[in-house]
Amino acid sequence: MSASELARLRQRISAEDALVVAFSGGVDSALLAAVAHEVLGPRMLAVTAVSPSLAAAERRQAKEFARTRGFPHVEVCTDEAERPEYAANDGNRCYHCKSALFDAIEPLAAALGGRIALGTNLDDLGDHRPGQRAAAQRGAVAPMVDAGLTKQAVRRVSRELGLATADKPAAACLASRVAYGDPVTPEVLGRIERAETAVRALGFEVCRVRAHGQGTVARLEVPEDDIARAAAQRAELDRVVREAGFQFCAVDLGGFRSGRMNALLPLLPVRSAS
């Protein structure tokens, strides 16, 4: 099945004159960048947006992946952290983040004579992702959606191509860890990054540190199978999380699941984003 999935993705990308791939280094954008380079060659450029919401480890891994695969790659600084509508962190935060991204990379796409491509897959369409509205307004394309690839298919095709990212855990931006309604600041993002780095160093490779209470409370999510181990290491976890800058650390007994913060959305007054 993966052969036909890869063929569909190649065919979809071949329909473009050129592509600027928004490349975070995650499993989705890595596959898109690798196949776009294979199909388009010099008519493809990968761009990584650098801001306080990008963890340093993710930035290093993105650069290394691009270097290993040999495709053109540049970094651009985005200013979403300086935009009040983004920092307010209401239900439309991702819309404002994507708007800042497009503002930064549209000149590159114009210079290359191509369109902006995002690593969105079919499974992403059912989640709360206001950034997709911003993408539609700016004319960005999602080749993996058009080719019918789910998240599982993305990993399957990545393994077929021997990509190092095939089994990489999901890694959303650091801002996704801040409770809706609490302001997103460089300080709280740094606190989250330090805490997650420390938790991983204790052996919890898959984890999320969710910030609540204006950045004072860390709600730690680990997979359900790791909860008992986290309880056994509660003193160490509490210490490293508080050393990262939080006043309190709590282990979520519900376990890790992507998009857990979306449970707070019904509690917010939703503002429209144009």
TrEMBL record:
Q: Which Pfam families match?
A: Asn_synthase (PF00733)
Kindly indicate whether the keyword Transferase belongs to this entry: yes
Q: Please name the GO terms of the biological process aspect recorded for this protein, alphabetically.
A: asparagine biosynthetic process
Q: What is this protein called?
A: ATP-dependent sacrificial sulfur transferase LarE
Q: What is the lineage of its organism?
A: Bacteria, Bacillati, Actinomycetota, Actinomycetes, Pseudonocardiales
The UniProt gene name for this protein comes to: larE
> Keywords for this entry?
Transferase
Tell me the active site: 173
Which residues span the membrane?
none
- Which part of the chain is the Asparagine synthetase domain? 10-82
One term of GO molecular function:
sulfurtransferase activity
The source's domain of life comes to Bacteria
Species name? Saccharopolyspora hirsuta
Q: Which InterPro entries match?
A: Asn_synthase (IPR001962), LarE (IPR005232), Ni-pincer_cofactor_biosynth (IPR052188), Rossmann-like_a/b/a_fold (IPR014729)
PANTHER family in the record: EXSB FAMILY PROTEIN, NAD_GMP SYNTHASE DOMAIN-CONTAINING PROTEIN
